[in-house]
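Hi U.,

Before I forget, here's the chain from the pilot set. I'm dumping it here mostly so it's searchable later in email.
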Amino acid sequence: MKAKYIFIGIALVGVLCACNRDEKSLFEQSAAERAETALNTAMDVLTAPENGWEMLFFANPESAGYNILVKFNKHGRVDATAKNAVTTKNKLLSDSSTFVLVNDYGPILSFDTYNKVLHAWADPQNDGDGLLGDYEFLILKAEPNYVKLKSKKRSAYCYLYPLKAGITDAQYFQEVEDMQSNLFGNGNVPRLHLGGKEYMLHKGSSGIFSLTDVGKKPDTEEEDIYPFATRQNGIHLMVPFLTGEDIQFTQKEGKLVSANSSINSIASAPYVLEYMSFLSGSWVIDFTDTCDSIKNTIEAINAKLKAAYPKNKKYASVQGLRIKQTTTNYILVFSYYGSSSKATTDMSYVFDVKREGNSLKLEYLEPADENAQKTLNAFPEIGNLFEALSGTFSTEATVALNPSKGIKLNNKSTSLVWYDISGKL
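Structure:
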């Protein structure tokens, strides 16, 4: 035991000696001088980008990320612009105010005068809490292409990236909205591939997504949540995502990719069935943009409807085609205007829909009920339409990240037969 203490004592002496040797080089500047250097560096970095910064703002650790465009100048002025549903009612809002950099156990960025864009998140509002945001941030990193902040009160991380040239504020926010739609529009649930495993990413109404195993719906009491912000070409997570590092996904070849993982939607053919079952959605057939044979069949049906309902001749026509899944089978809902243009008449017809490898097979079976049979008897051209929609089809998504935005079905027996479907929840 005595030898052990002697060994520890020798080790401590060695450490202290090492510290003494390095002390001069480490502390050539006083604490005040080092603080001043850090503030000057932060000011130089913040004011350098000619076009300002894209700020990914998280009000608190459980907040979705929001986009704010900020531009700093050397005179302590900051211009800020935002567009979101929470604080600007989806309208562009800009304001100018002041900022200061101060030292408080590290460089602090403080928006010290009121700014309608920036302070809206920190206003207490009527409930005394408001949106639980902040207007003072510890500067964790300040580099020419990346600034990382941490809110002083809420401990939420925020990120700044230089805004690229040649884009207006309106164009920037439109591109962000387009990316959001391409990822999550129509209820799309993308897949995350990480470490050889596959997960599902569910976007909640608050803009925070949860992670589940494939085929499992989120349970708010069990699943971890991951606040993220959408960028023009990807998404950025506020918290480390299964890797211990800050993660941003950037669009590349139909996927969002990071250094060690990727996000994409599954192949079109299985996606069709998953969308109808797991997501409880349906597929709408676009009969206005399709092959000539289907267009001609639709026109023939319309002609018969107009002849059958002369008092509503102007409006009598096919109004919709939609495939949905019930508890027992797949139904094509045929909607049309007949005697009235104020409400559609819906008729259900049974289809068999199945996946064959990377292809999708649709086969018309029978009317779902007696009324559907009567309509088919009165307008046999509808049967011709169902035959045209049947066959084995290759599938190609219009937007790889989100097949619900549109999938083109090409008949594998004849390239002259094709039509598009899009998802609807």
